[in-house]
Amino acid sequence: MPKQSGSSMYYTDKKNDESMVPPLVLIHGAGGSHLDWSPELRRLPGARVIAVDLPGHGRSAGSGYDDTLAYAHDVAALLTDLEIPRAVIAGHSMGGAIAQQMGLKFSAQVAGLVLVGTGSKLPVDPTLPDRIISQTEQAVDWLVDWSWGVNAPAEMKARSRENLLKTAPEVMRNDYLACMAFDFRDKLDHITAPTLVLAAVDDQMVKLKFGITLAERIPNAKLVQVEGAGHMFPLEQAGVVAQAILTWLKEQQWTS
Fold first, then answer.
1. pTM summary value
2. What are the residues facing 195 on neighbouring strands?
3. d(Cα 50, Cα 134) in Å, to the nearest integer?
4. Residue 12 and residue 38 in contact, taking contact as beta carbons nearer than 8 Å
5. Measured CA angle at 40 (ends 38, 42), to 5 deg
6. How many other C-beta atoms are found inside a 10 Å radius of the C-beta of residue 38?
7. What kind and span of H or E run contains 204?
8. d(C-alpha 26, C-alpha 92), whole Å
């Protein structure tokens, strides 16, 4: 059920006291919220699933950050608040950068990583942060056009646009500055947690090659390529993504 952490971070928590896998924490991308993860994944059978709204996003207070490590600190603090010693951290796009930060900086709290539509460096149009402030609606329209696959339902794209416009432009701008500053290219081989990489073949925002590089350079990583969707493939191919994550969770030999 929805809750607030001590740091006022909103999250949903689908508990499962009999789960044989670590809790799964879902971190959304730039300008997004926990609604960027499908109900199929937020209610994944056999697992405890926590989906957060980062500070300044969705129902969470705050103003956000221009640094992915600062977001990682807040997620780590939430795990401490919830008395969760170790979790699988799943992140989409900017959330994947936050997950990588956690895999390196907060490794004791990370049982595994699920990196979704992300990379060790995130490609961002350098004019985008300023356009988000000066031409907010046009910038959001551009983001929606580039984020969704050609066959994405119109109502799904419209809902995405509506949700992005609910995020304060300053928060969204800082998110993309955080994406531009992120660079883990020389750190991937230091990530020791078992890692699932999910990448969409038709992703225009973070192309498939970024996912391939993650899977090649993180020591204990597996790559799953998703067909028929764009950058928002966790929603466009919700069933495929949920099943891939569930299968991978069950394949691991988790230790307490």
1. 0.96
2. 113, 221
3. 35
4. no
5. 70
6. 18
7. none
8. 8
* DSSP string covering 136-195: HHHHHHHHHHHHS-TT--HHHHHHHHHHHHHS-HHHHHHHHHHHHH-B-TTTGGG--S-E
Tokens of 118: 């992300």
Q: Could you list the pLDDT tens digit for every one of the 256 residues in the chain?
A: 445 444 579 999 998 877 889 999 999 999 999 999 999 999 999 999 999 999 999 999 998 999 999 999 999 999 999 999 999 999 999 999 999 999 999 999 999 999 999 999 999 999 999 999 999 999 999 999 999 999 999 999 999 999 999 999 999 999 999 999 999 999 999 999 999 999 999 999 999 999 999 999 999 999 999 999 999 999 999 999 999 999 999 999 997 6
